[in-house]
Amino acid sequence: MAESEMRSKKLVHEGCTIYKEKPFVYVLSSKLRTEYCDSCLKKGQFMKCSGCHYVYYCGKVCQKEGWSVHKTECRNLKRVAPRILPDAARFIARLIHVLRKGGDLVKSYYLENCFRMYKDLMSHYPNIKGDHQRMEHFTSLCAVLFDFLGDDSLPNSAELMGMYGRMCINSFNIIDQELQCIGTGMYLGASVIDHSCSPNAVAIFDGPVLSIRALQTFQYLDWSQIRISYIDILNTTKDRQNELEAAYYFLCKCPKCLEPEPPEINAAACPNEKCDNYIDAEIITPGEKCTKCDTIITELFLKRFKEVVEFTDLHLQNMKQLAYFDVCEICLKKQKGVLHKFNVKYVKTLDLAFQSSIDFQKWDFARKFALELVDAFYKYYGQVHPITGLLHLKLGKILLFEENDNLALEHLTKAYQILKITHGISNNLFKDELVPLMQQARAAVTNQNV
Which of 112, 69, 120 is nearest to 93 (CA)? Predict the structure, then answer.
C-alpha cells in the first residue's frame, strides 16, 4: 500500500485517541474466568452460564451480548467439563465460528478509505512450520480442538495452521487498568501498526475495546509512522531482539535498537557503597580502578557479580508467571552493592518485589521499592509511559494511606500528567481512582496549612 494511502490530514495532538476498535475475536484468560465477565471483561458480581457452568457474566445484558459467540461453544464446554480448555484452543474455536459466519468479509477501517480484513493478516506459515516449539504447541492444540469440536467442524490442517499463525503474530494481550494481562484479542485494523522499542503511541483497553493513543503530537496522521511496542521494553537490546525474533520473526531496527545501550544496563555497582558509579564488568579486569572514586575492582568482586547475575537470571525466569516476595527479597539482598541501581536485572527484581509487596500488603516495603523504581522507569520507559504513570499512582496511594500527604500529592500529580496522555480523562482508572485520590491529597495538604 502506498504511504499516501496511509495518511490523513488530521492534526494529532499528544494524548489523542487516534483509533478505537472492537475485537474481531477475543477470549478471557481461563484462570480469570470466575473473576471477570466473559463478555465485557470487567470485574464484579457474576452469574454463571446455566448451560456450561464454565463462563461467568456480570448480568443479563452481557450474557445476551456474548451469546452470539458463546452458544456454539457452550455445549462443547459442558461436554469436556471439568477440563479447562486452553485459551489458544478456545480462541481458534471462536475464530473458526466467526469466519464461518462471514467474518472473512468484515472490513475494519483505520482511515476513511483504508481498511484491513482477515486475509490481510500475515500467517507466517513458513516461519511457524520451521519453529519447533510452536509446531509442538500447534500439534497439541489440534488434538484439543479435535476433542472439543469434532473432526467435521475442523478446517484442513493448512487452514488451521494459518489461523494459528495469525493468532500468534497478530493478537494483542488485552490488559486491565492495572496493566495485567486478562485475555487475548485479534484486531483487524490495529494490525496495521508496526513495532518500535521507542513507541510514539500506546494501546489501552476498556474491557475488550482497544484504543490507540498518541504519545506525541503529529502534524498529520500517518499510519506508516505510528509505532507501538509489542513487548515490554524494559530489557537489553539483545534480549528484546531475541524476544521479537522468537515471537514475531523480525529483527527490530528502531533507533533504540541501533543506538548504543545505556552503559549501566548490565553494570556492576562500585564496591565503594558511597560511590554511585557503574562498573562495566564485561570489559574491566581485576586490579583496575573505579573511574570516579579509584576503588580497586578485585577478582573476588567480579566473581561475585557473575554469581549474582546467574542467580538472578534463574529466579527471574522462575517468576515470569508469579512473583514471590520472599524470593525477591533474597535476590535483592544478594544484589545489594553488587548490581548497579540501573542494572536491568536489579530493576526487574525491584519491580517484582514492589508488585508482590502490594499483594501481601507490605506497605513499608512497597513504598521503599517504588521510590527506588521511579528513576529507573523514567530511564528505560521514557517520560510518558503507562507503566510509569501507574507506578506514581500506586505510590501516591500508599503515601496517602501513610498520611505523607505532600509527597503523595507530588506523585499523584505526576501520575495525572502521564495518565492524562496515556489513558485520557474519560478512562475509569483516571476519573474514578486517580482524580478522587488527588482531591483527597489536596484537601489533606490544605488542612495541614490552615
Answer: 69
Nearest CA among 356, 355, 348 for reference residue 325: 356
Please give the pLDDT value at position 151: 73
Phi-psi region of 337 (alpha: psi -120 to 50; beta: other; left: phi over 0): left
What is the pLDDT, as a whole number, of residue 163? 97
Length of the chain: 450
- What's the pLDDT score for residue 9? 75
**Contact indicator for 121, 191 with CB cutoff of 8 Å:** yes
For helices 132-149 and 87-100, what crossing angle results, to 10°?
60
Flag residues of the chain having pLDDT under 50.
Answer: 1-4
pLDDT at 450: 64
Q: In 171-288, where does DSSP find H-type helix?
A: 237-248, 255-258
DSSP string, 246-272: HHHS----SHHHHSPPPGGGGPEEPSS
In the prediction, which pLDDT does 321 show?
73
Which pLDDT score is estimated for 172? 97
Residue 130 CB neighbours (<10 A) = 11
Beta bridge partner(s), residue 50: none
How many angstroms separate the Cα of 108 from the Cα of each of 20, 68, 99, 116, 187? 10, 20, 15, 5, 8
| C-alpha grid cell, residue 341 | 541501581
| Adjacent-strand bridge partners of 184 | 27, 173
User: Residue 131, class by beta-carbon neighbours within 10 Å (0-12 exposed, 13-18 middle, 19+ buried)?
Assistant: middle
User: Among residues 433, 363, 359, 347, which one has the least CA distance to residue 401?
Assistant: 363
Q: Rounded to whole angstroms, what are the CA distances from 252 to 123, 189, 245, 444?
A: 19, 22, 8, 48
In angstroms, the first-to-last Cα distance of the chain is 64
The pLDDT, as a whole number, for residue 2 is: 44
Cell of 63: 450474557
Q: Distance between CA 209 and CA 43 in Å, rounded?
A: 15
The per-residue b/e assignment along 31-63, b for 16 or more CB within 10 angstroms, e otherwise, is ebbeebbbbbbbeeebeebeebebbbbbeeebb
Say if residue 82 is preceded by a cis peptide, omega within 30 of 0.
yes
Q: β-pairing, 181-186 with 171-175?
A: antiparallel
Given a contact cutoff of 8 angstroms between Cβ atoms, the answer to whether 390 and 365 are in contact is no
User: How far apart are alpha carbons 351 and 260 in whole angstroms?
Assistant: 24
Which triple of cell numbers denotes residue 322?
508469579
Task: Tell me 86's DSSP state.
Answer: P
* CA 392 vs CA 101, 124, 165, 385, 386: distances in Å: 45, 40, 38, 11, 10
0.85 cut: is pTM over it? yes
